[in-house]
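Practice problem 4.
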């Protein structure tokens, strides 16, 4: 069961890598717009994160850090909201507001930092 949990963790990390990678391509490629790949990466990270939040496959004596899980969930929901609103604005106006675009990248990095630094 622990091996399955590690596989789900790997999928979770892949989701964040896809989201941040797709964002970085747009940020440093000059277009600065939201892509479908960003939404796919966020969805993968969200689904795998929800599976990881369930208390299964943990070694004996290990407790879940629900404050960390809740914080990561709130940040992920904000990223999802920004992607949804920004994609809608992009369809209507042809571009994403710069603040929204940069916030997605910053919050994705913050979420990864929370995952690795917060114990």
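Answer key:
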């Amino acid at each position: 069961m622990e091996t399955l949990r590690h596989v789900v963790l790997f999928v979770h990390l892949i989701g964040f890598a896809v989201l941040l990678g797709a964002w970085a391509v747009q940020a440093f490629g000059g277009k600065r717009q939201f892509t479908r790949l960003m939404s796919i990466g966020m969805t993968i990270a969200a689904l795998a994160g929800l599976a990881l939040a369930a208390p299964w496959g943990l070694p004996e004596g290990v407790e879940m850090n629900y404050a960390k899980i809740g914080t990561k969930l709130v940040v992920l929901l904000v990223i999802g909201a920004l992607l949804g609103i920004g994609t809608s604005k992009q369809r209507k106006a042809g571009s994403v507001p710069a603040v929204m675009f940069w916030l997605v990248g910053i919050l994705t990095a913050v979420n990864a930092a929370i995952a690795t630094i917060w114990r």
